[in-house]
Design goal:
About 30% of the residues lie in helices and about 30% in strands. By secondary structure, it is an alpha/beta fold. It is elongated, with a radius of gyration of 26 Å.
């Protein structure tokens, strides 16, 4: 049976506040495996950052055990830990007059000599890390001049330059634009597949995690439930965990949706992307639209061509959804949903 790279047993975590221990999570258990990208999911304040800091030995273990590849975390020497584990936290270091390349080079500290001299191998590793994260052009820039998103990429490159089998990241997609979020997620996945890295990261980008991660770890104060996104969807654990006010999880599609209040309905006939997009736009306005709505008025939707047929026989044509939403007759054509027997979002 495959042994976990990270094993958490009966772990209680928390933090000290003015000499008083505040417990965040109690007696939790989890296993994370090499060659898998695992996202840590949970609401704000549940303890995701506290767990990652505890795994990084930046906060003490109050009860329980953590092992890395069978080695007890509390018994691993600092020098050894630096070759096992690299960490990217949300805090940014306040460092001035240091270049991006010099910052990334700090990831080689566990391997350099007393003077911190970089070998040709070290230089090659640093250059590869800069290239993997896509920041070669920033190499000569001063770290303090970068944007938050650029600093995030630099810290990830530093972690990659450290060449550890385990990488922990606390909300690594924060501050990144959407294309950069996707690129980073793909890079992390690539590292697990091609280099058998063990990567655990916290995130609030649920849709991306669902698409890219091998496993998702759903964290509460009482337990951590780990499984593939698909299994967690099908057994309803993900919907039970994440459903809340203003949000629903569709386990059939694996998508999170905003829960719109729905008051009205209108029959909608059509197929294809234009029809689906019109449904989304009307839903945002509190109007359910599909062929099951029993209204006398109806809308037909074809490719970039929309026609509103009012109950009085009047027809209004539009070439865009914006035009459709602008028809005053729309609200005169809808019916209250209480007037029909079947109305589903």
């Amino acid at each position: 049976m495959k042994e976990p790279a990270i094993k958490i047993e009966s772990l209680t975590i928390g933090y000290e506040d003015k000499g008083t221990f505040s417990e965040v999570a109690h007696q939790i258990n989890a296993s994370v495996y090499a060659g898998e990208l695992t996202s840590l999911i949970g609401p704000n304040g549940v303890g995701k950052s506290t767990l990652l800091r505890t795994l990084s030995r930046l906060q003490p273990i109050y009860e329980g055990d953590i092992t890395f590849y069978g080695e007890n975390l509390q018994e691993i020497k600092k020098e050894r830990l630096a070759t096992l584990l690299s960490v990217v936290l949300t805090e940014r270091p306040s460092i001035y007059n240091i270049s991006v390349k010099e910052m990334v080079a700090m990831g080689r500290n566990p391997y350099t000599n007393y003077w911190g001299s970089l070998s040709q191998k070290d230089e090659k590793v640093i250059d590869e890390a800069l290239e993997m994260v896509g920041i070669v052009a920033l190499g000569a820039r001063k770290f303090e001049t970068l944007s938050d998103g650029e600093k995030q990429k630099v810290m990830i490159a530093k972690a990659l330059a450290q060449q550890t089998p385990i990488i922990l990241l606390d909300e690594p997609t924060s501050f990144l634009d959407y294309p950069s979020k996707i690129e980073l997620m793909q890079l992390l996945y690539q590292l697990t597949q091609e280099r058998q890295k063990t990567i655990l990261f916290s995130t609030h980008d649920l849709d991306l995690a669902m698409q890219v991660c091998d496993k998702m770890a759903l964290m509460s104060s009482a337990e951590i439930v780990i499984g593939t996104p698909e299994d967690l969807s099908l057994n309803h654990q993900l919907s039970e965990f994440m459903n809340g006010k203003g949000m629903i999880f569709d386990y059939k599609t694996g998508l999170f949706k905003v829960k719109h209040p729905i008051y009205w309905g209108i029959k909608l006939k059509g197929r294809g992307a234009s029809c689906v997009m019109l449904q989304k736009a009307l839903l945002r306005k509190g109007i359910l639209s599909n062929e099951e709505v029993k209204s006398n008025a109806f809308i037909t939707a074809a490719e970039n061509n929309y026609v509103l047929h009012t109950a009085t026989g009047k027809t209004l044509s539009a070439l865009s959804i914006e035009e459709v939403l602008g028809f005053p007759e729309i609200m005169q054509s809808v019916i209250p949903l209480s007037e029909q027997f079947l109305h589903k979002e």
